[in-house]
Design goal:
Layout lengths: L4 E5 L5 H16 L3 E3 L1 H4 L11 H14 L2 E5 L7 H17 L3 E6 L21 E4 L7 H21 L5
Parallel strand pairs: 1-2, 1-3, 3-4, 4-5
Length: 164
């Protein structure tokens, strides 16, 4: 049986971003999902000296349309512009094909949806927005946090009745 595929959209330019992506992908894979990480996919477009940015962009566009679920990290004072575009592409595709489902995650504790501040209202078009602020201060707490976040994503995927 084929696994449900998740495209993990989010910033990937700094080590903290890449570390976040890897930790979340690891926990989602433990739950049985296939996770596509743009930071790994981008390596296909590296010739040893530089990246083919147009190739990366085309691949990100394709991945955001072809997978079963897009999980988008919308942390920060304003979501990463590439992530916002990937969410828009996925939502546009879903309006035609009912796939992919879009789940936005926000771990940034500076803002929350209940106070109507922080996230751009356009993200409310996602199938789910998961707000789970990260109040961690140890490596053990970080591990538990990512397990909990992956479980919330897993529950959302089940509630949305995503099928391969």
């Amino acid at each position: 049986m084929a696994k449900i595929s998740i495209y993990l959209a989010g910033p990937l330019f700094g080590i903290a971003d890449r570390h976040h992506n890897l930790l979340l992908a690891q926990e989602l894979e433990k739950l049985g999902y296939t996770v596509i990480l743009p930071q790994k996919e981008a390596l296909k477009f590296f010739n040893g000296e530089r990246f083919d940015l147009k190739g990366i962009s085309k691949d990100c566009k394709r991945q955001s349309m072809e997978n079963d679920v897009v999980v988008a990290n919308i942390d920060g004072p304003d979501a990463d512009s590439g992530t916002a575009l990937e969410v828009g592409i996925a939502l546009s595709r879903a309006s035609i094909a009912n796939k992919p489902k879009v789940i936005c995650i926000r771990t940034d504790f500076r803002t929350n949806r209940e106070q109507e501040i922080g996230i751009n209202g356009m993200f409310e078009f996602a199938d789910r927005v998961i707000y789970m602020p990260a109040f961690t201060s140890s490596l053990k707490e970080i591990t538990e946090f990512y397990k909990g976040l992956a479980k919330k994503i897993d529950n959302a995927i089940k509630e949305l009745a995503v099928r391969k």
